[in-house]
TrEMBL record:
Residue ranges constituting the ABC transporter domain according to the UniProt record: 13-253
GO biological process: L-amino acid transport
UniProt-recorded name of the protein: Amino acid/amide ABC transporter ATP-binding protein 2, HAAT family
Any Pfam family matching the protein: ABC_tran
UniProt keyword terms in alphabetical order: Amino-acid transport, ATP-binding, Nucleotide-binding, Transport
PANTHER family: ABC TRANSPORTER SUBSTRATE-BINDING PROTEIN, HIGH-AFFINITY BRANCHED-CHAIN AMINO ACID TRANSPORT ATP-BINDING PROTEIN LIVF
Family from the record: Belongs to the ABC transporter superfamily.
Highest taxon, organism lineage: Bacteria
Keyword Cell inner membrane: no
SUPFAM superfamilies: P-loop containing nucleoside triphosphate hydrolases
Keyword ATP-binding on entry: yes
InterPro entries documented for this protein: AAA+_ATPase, ABC_transporter-like_ATP-bd, BCAA_Transport_ATP-bd_LivF, P-loop_NTPase
Amino acid sequence: MLDGPDQGSDTLLEVNNIEVIYNHVILVLKGVSLKVPKGGITSLLGGNGAGKTTTLKAISGLLRSERGEITKGSISYRGERLTGEDPAAQVKAGIIQVMEGRHCFEHLTVEENLLTGAYTRRDGRGATEADLQMVYDYFPRLKERRKSQAGYTSGGEQQMVAIGRALMSRPETILLDEPSMGLAPQLVEQIFGIVKRLNEEQGVTFLLAEQNTNVALRFAHYGYILESGRIVMDGPAAELRENPDVKEFYLGMSEEGRKSFRDVRSYRRRKRWLA
Ligand SMILES: Nc1ncnc2c1ncn2[C@@H]1O[C@H](COP(=O)(O)OP(=O)(O)OP(=O)(O)O)[C@@H](O)[C@H]1O
């Protein structure tokens, strides 16, 4: 059911052929389209500078603050067009972005950080308190550290705070940017394991941007591969994992080591943008 956008699943978020330009001149996304089904974990893969963060920011409405602009295409959520100009409207619609690099309020405690995530809610203290407990159930480490100043917690704990804070807004969809960044492999597994549980137990839909193709394709249902601002391949995660090109270029399972698709003449991937 959650195999992907073409399997008849309920599409929650749809990005339709968007082009993004920074500072009026730097063309970064060159017609990106993707679908995120309700209740799925969809991953957006690609190397440095491929355009993953830009895609997430286009969805969450955070481009403007970076002098970025969607100049073509459209984004819709539950069938309604998002204007991409007001992050608060996206949060209200149920979408929240967890930024790359954690971004905690360093001088606040872990618990105060988590509570800032609930500031848009109007359903009372009881509900907020219950969700705080829910976050602590998923991240027992944060409960232990709840009175610590966030700036003095470890990278892994800060990543947990960032995800926990997003959960406090009771989102339907979390845009998670590079959760593995700078974390030891064991911690990456732990964070992804929690993402999977949140997806299965709380029904949270995820769109996650990752350079770590290996871990992302093990936990996601569907993947899109982005290169230089274009989607060059997509498919159910299990199929991508077995795809010889993905294996060679992204999973490093080749004797020659990792390469970019662009460096190879006889690649077999679909070159959609030439079609
Ligand atoms: N605010 C900005 N102004 C100008 N160019 C930008 C801005 N933000 C990103 N870019 C450029 O857009 C391109 C895509 O960047 P983006 O951060 O979306 O890629 P990414 O796939 O998320 O990479 P990374 O994993 O390194 O964050 C890069 O070439 C980057 O230099």
